[in-house]
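2024-03-11 09:14:02 DEBUG pipeline.ingest accepted 1 chain
2024-03-11 09:14:02 DEBUG pipeline.ingest length=201
2024-03-11 09:14:03 DEBUG pipeline.predict start
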Amino acid sequence: MRKPIKNTRKVGFLLLICSISFVLFGCEKDISEPLNWELSNFSATNEDGDNLELKDLKGKVWIADFVFTNCTSVCPPMTANMKELQGKLKEKKLDVELVSFSVDPSFDTPEILKEYVGTYDGDLSNWTLLTGYDQQFIDDYALKNFKTIVKKPTVGDQVIHGTSFYLIDQNGIVKKDYDGLNLPFEEIIQDIEILLSKTEK
């Protein structure tokens, strides 16, 4: 009858060792299946008419998406989701930048972008909307850096573009993408917290 007790003690001891090992070595989580796409530089104009480059986001965790103000289909729910995400990040006091690239820069001036985000009651203190480049640049930049399509048709004003949200780390590396139409808020916040915890160390 004593063998089970011995086994129980062994199991307990092993669990204790595992717990200690986790505390010492396993506390630092990482993003599951990271994309690890390195971004190249960009030069753009924000909603205030100021220049913004990739280097200006160095050291920050940020979320990016691609939208345009004349969009009649996917952009309104995407922008509403970005606004909701912004609110959740504020509640948790997470220092994260939000960056929306316009995929229709010939129409989306800084003034128009500022008015657009205002209709969603977006807070521009950590939400930047970008324009100031030409169509060819954003087509190429989206494809090469975010592996997503941007294509302005020759007829009509509805630009074809992807609907993902992208999580970028402090070194300008795309770590993960998410469905921008059905944003998994809990998952994205957990991933953000993982990246921010690395900054704190």
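2024-03-11 09:14:41 DEBUG pipeline.report The beta strands are 37-38, 43-45, 51-53, 61-67, 96-102, 127-130, 150-151, 160-161, 164-168, 173-179.
2024-03-11 09:14:41 DEBUG pipeline.predict end
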